[in-house]
Amino acid sequence: MNTRDMQLEAHHDTRHMLYPFANQTHLAKSPPLVIERGEGVYVYDRNGKRYLDGQGGLWNVNVGHDRPEIKEAIRQQLDRISFYSIFGGTSNQPAIDLSHVLCRWTAQEGMERAFYSSGGSEANEAAFKLARQYWRQVGQATRHKIISLKRAYHGVTLGALSANGTPAYRSPYEPLLAGFVQVETPYTYRNPFTNDPEELGRLCAALLEREIEYQGPSSVAAFVAEPVQGAGGVIVPPANFWPLVREVCDRHGVLLISYEVVTGFGRIGSEMGCRHWGVKPDMMVFAKGINSGYIPLGATMANARICDAFVTKDDAQFSTSAFYHGNTYAGHPLACVAAIANLEITEKEQLHLNAREVGTYFIDRLKSIQDKHRYMGEVRGQGLMIAIELVADKKTKAPLDLSLNVGARISDECRKSGVLIRNLADTFIISPPLTFSKANADEIVEAIDKAMAKLDEKN
Questions:
Q1: Beta strands of 320-448 (E only): which ranges?
Q2: Do residues 418 and 49 make contact, with C-beta atoms less than 8 angstroms apart?
Q3: What residue segments make up the domains of the chain, in order of their start?
């Protein structure tokens, strides 16, 4: 292919698509890598080059690419019916079956019903609307505020975005919705309080309680958080934080929503993120790992406290007790059969245990090269949810000048070595399929080591 043909092909890749979270001018000059197919923990571009998928798609291909069990489940469902809605007095069997599966998976947390959506953002919207309507149902309509954490990521729809705690995601769309408040996150590497994780956990839980009291408990509907913050930089909270949060919420009657879009179904080494911390929330929000991305799907789970408020003596089809929310593709039959097959694999192969074992090994291997490289500030993570935060100075933790594109240069070098990892400004996100082996982890560590060494030489 000559230079002109390559330029035309690159132009073709970006001309008619508006890409998410991307500078379109930059993409026109550096077109995206087009992935053609996948197999297990590897993907292939259209030139046939193989890459180790250190991103797991986008946190979500938990069981790996091209699983025949999931493909067959989808094929069989296509022979029955590809779509039918769950609106207006109709349903479909896969949606019903999956609700039973999800309630079994979350029985330990006391979840009783599943509400379907098309992905994580919509699932979070449903959680917020459920929370607000719940309080109306029980006669406390003034409870409408949602509290979340700084650096949190909860999605891109307007309500979910209002709960996000990262200014860069929020500022282009302000003013956002009223009634959303953020409090300090327990970020052990960077916080203005203490280097003691346990003390930080207590302080951040106390700040949450202080905010609830300041807002007035009678105005606060729910607190929402990721068990481990994802896009905010894989921030693992101190062990005492989540149990203390549950206590704070209970003292003030506030609902607790666990945003499990990334952490659900095994990624951090426990079947559920909140379960790792020994906490039972009132609602759980799922997407991504629910069916490993084979067909878009989200789900919002609620416990008896929530569900009972929507069961009334009024049995008219249209009544004030109905939950007036839904998406056309909610409970999509193909997505639901994919989820059932995916969760069977996840359970059968005990992928949460593999994530725990390989993740521990992976983090240790990354830490073993940390002192060699000038930009590796902190390696952190839980299970196969891992981050490397880059810094300009390790002693002071001075942040990088993002205009230097250090992260992008390192990820580009890794890509040349056949490894895909995600660069978010000054932090690398590593979230591979939960089927990853220690040998796969070694391959990524070697690629990062080589890429950082090359950058060290130039600087």
A1: 376-382, 385-390, 419-420, 422-424, 427-430
A2: yes
A3: 33-63+350-458, 69-348
| Secondary structure class of 28 (helix, strand, coil) | helix
pLDDT in tens, 43-57: 999 999 999 999 999
Q: Please give the C-alpha separations between residue 363 and each of 29, 395, 449, in angstroms, as whole numbers.
A: 34, 21, 13
Segments in 294-350 forming alpha helices (H): 304-308, 333-348
Q: What is d(CA 2, CA 434) in angstroms, rounded to the nearest whole number?
A: 40
Say if residues 14 and 24 touch (Cβ distance below 8 Å).
Answer: yes
Range name among 56-65, 205-214, 322-331, 400-409 with the lowest pLDDT average? 400-409
Taking the C-alpha atoms of residue 375 and residue 186, their distance in angstroms, rounded to an integer, is: 23
CB atoms inside a 10 Å sphere around CB 402: 12
pTM for the model stands at: 0.95
Q: Which DSSP symbol is given to 66?
A: S
Q: Is the pLDDT of residue 336 over 90?
A: yes
For residue 393, what are the β-bridge partners?
Answer: 398
> Domain 69-348 carries which CATH code?
3.40.640.10
Q: Give the DSSP H or E segment for 202.
A: helix 197-215
Return d(Cα 222, Cα 255) in angstroms, integer. Answer: 4
- Report yes or no: 130 and 302 within 8 Å, Cβ to Cβ: yes
Tell how strand 35-39 and strand 42-45 pair up: antiparallel
Contact between 126 and 300 (Cβ < 8 Å): yes
> What's the maximum distance between 2 C-alpha atoms anywhere in the chain?
73
Measured CA angle at 143 (ends 137, 145), to 5 deg: 130
Beta strand pairing call for 422-424 and 427-430: antiparallel
Find tokens 């923990």 and name the residue. 41
Contacts of 326 (CB under 8 A, 6+ apart): 86, 87
The structural architecture, per CATH, of the domain 33-63+350-458 is Alpha-Beta Complex (3.90)
Looking at 16-65, list the stretches that DSSP marks H as alpha helix, in order from N- to C-terminal side: 24-29, 56-59
- What H or E segment, with its residue span, contains residue 117? strand 111-117
Name residue 111's beta-bridge partners.
303
**144 neighbors 127 (Cβ within 8 angstroms):** no
Average pLDDT across the chain, whole number: 94
Pairing status of strand 50-53 against strand 419-420: parallel
Average pLDDT score over residue span 332-359: 98
Whether 226 and 262 have beta carbons less than 8 Å apart is answered as yes
**What residues pair up with 146 in beta bridges, in sequence order?**
180, 222
pLDDT digits (tens, 9 = 90+) for 303-325: 999 999 998 777 665 677 889 99
